[in-house]
């Protein structure tokens, strides 16, 4: 039986939501036969017409499945190597202090902790509803954002191994491997974000967020420029603009994933350095290309095991649990009793 205190992934990680960058397409891949039947036609319409092009697609998908199967072991190895090799530049950014948070944010959190707090009252304080149920408000001080960005650049240049957050983003960094989870992200989620998400998203697990996956994304002229339209493996997402100087690169939001709009109908939301954008993980969104500079953002995918144990947001089925490390993908074995089907990968 599974360990009730641990977090798990859903088995669909090995088959679903595989991103083919060359054709900007998310697919499911269980076998060559299934894949050809489901996607060959659409791939052809996107310009994948030769056998060599299709072979390259298969090769990319197999590599991605291999990466996903090795995630736990690779991540444990990188974490150990970073601990051994890497000397932080600004060790204070690993431990959140109240002075690192914007006064407006602290005021909003303080309000939410009152027994009489309402969503309407909170919205008067944070003001910006940038798109339906998408809120932007100050989170950190500018100094904290500057020091965190410098720390990330220092890490990037150190030569220590870097874990990529997902297939869509090639220059991001997984933050748990650097030791950011306990002192910065868990602290931020539990003490400051949860009171806010409880009022804004009670219908999406906002009252019971019990784990997260945190990473930074980076966009630069000769690296990634934009991010394709997607939904997150999260119940609620916080996206904070850390800097540095950049032009364009707005977020755009559509509807919930059951009713995807075309990109043209989306609402754009600007990134303002030191401000966070809070949104439902299942609301479709993407990022437009930057046209100059470098953009770093802190992304916290917050999860509610209570919510996702009922249905995995990535495959829309009851999750089949797979053991992993740390917060994994936020599923727990509670409530599954003797019938829990844990698969050791
Ligand atoms: O680039 C951004 O600001 C969006 C990042 C994002 O949506 C994600 O990583 O899930
Ligand atoms: Fe996202």
Automatic annotation (TrEMBL):
<keyword id="KW-0408">Iron</keyword>
<keyword id="KW-0560">Oxidoreductase</keyword>
<dbReference type="GO" id="GO:0005506">
    <property type="term" value="F:iron ion binding"/>
</dbReference>
<dbReference type="GO" id="GO:0051213">
    <property type="term" value="F:dioxygenase activity"/>
</dbReference>
<dbReference type="GO" id="GO:0031418">
    <property type="term" value="F:L-ascorbic acid binding"/>
</dbReference>
<dbReference type="InterPro" id="IPR005123">
    <property type="entry name" value="Oxoglu/Fe-dep_dioxygenase_dom"/>
</dbReference>
<protein>
    <recommendedName>
        <fullName>Fe2OG dioxygenase domain-containing protein</fullName>
    </recommendedName>
</protein>
<feature type="domain" description="Fe2OG dioxygenase">
    <location>
        <begin position="210"/>
        <end position="304"/>
    </location>
</feature>
<dbReference type="GO" id="GO:0016705">
    <property type="term" value="F:oxidoreductase activity, acting on paired donors, with incorporation or reduction of molecular oxygen"/>
</dbReference>
<keyword id="KW-0847">Vitamin C</keyword>
<keyword id="KW-0223">Dioxygenase</keyword>
<keyword id="KW-0479">Metal-binding</keyword>
<dbReference type="Pfam" id="PF25238">
    <property type="entry name" value="OGFOD2-like"/>
</dbReference>
<dbReference type="InterPro" id="IPR006620">
    <property type="entry name" value="Pro_4_hyd_alph"/>
</dbReference>
């Amino acid at each position: 039986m599974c360990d009730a205190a641990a977090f798990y992934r859903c088995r669909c990680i090995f088959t679903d939501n595989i991103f083919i960058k060359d054709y900007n397409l998310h697919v499911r891949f269980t076998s060559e036969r299934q894949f050809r039947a489901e996607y060959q036609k659409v791939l052809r319409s996107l310009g994948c017409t030769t056998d060599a092009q299709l072979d390259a697609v298969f090769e990319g998908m197999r590599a991605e499945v291999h990466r996903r199967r090795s995630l736990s072991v690779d991540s444990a190895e990188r974490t150990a190597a970073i601990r051994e090799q890497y000397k932080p530049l600004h060790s204070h950014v690993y431990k959140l202090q109240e002075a690192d948070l914007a006064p407006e944010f602290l005021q909003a959190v303080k309000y939410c902790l009152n027994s009489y707090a309402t969503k309407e009252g909170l919205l008067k304080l944070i003001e910006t509803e940038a798109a339906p149920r998408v809120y932007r408000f100050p989170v950190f001080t500018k100094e904290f954002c500057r020091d965190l960005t410098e720390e990330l650049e220092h890490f990037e240049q150190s030569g220590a191994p870097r874990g990529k957050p997902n297939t869509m983003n090639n220059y991001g960094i997984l933050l748990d491997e650097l030791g950011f989870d306990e002192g910065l992200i868990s602290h931020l989620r539990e003490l400051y974000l949860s009171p806010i998400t409880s009022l804004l998203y009670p219908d999406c697990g906002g009252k019971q967020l019990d784990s997260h996956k945190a990473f930074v994304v980076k966009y630069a002229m000769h690296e990634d420029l934009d991010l394709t339209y997607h939904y997150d493996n999260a119940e609620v997402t916080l996206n904070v603009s850390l800097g540095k100087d950049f032009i364009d690169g707005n977020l755009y939001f559509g509807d919930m994933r059951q009713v995807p709009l075309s990109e043209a109908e989306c609402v754009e939301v600007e990134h303002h350095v030191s401000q966070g954008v809070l949104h439902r993980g299942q609301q479709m969104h993407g990022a437009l290309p930057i046209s100059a500079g470098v953009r770093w953002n802190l992304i916290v995918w917050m999860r509610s095991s209570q919510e996702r144990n009922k249905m995995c947001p990535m495959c829309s089925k009851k999750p089949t649990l797979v053991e992993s490390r740390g917060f994994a993908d936020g599923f727990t074995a509670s409530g599954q009793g003797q019938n829990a089907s844990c698969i050791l990968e």
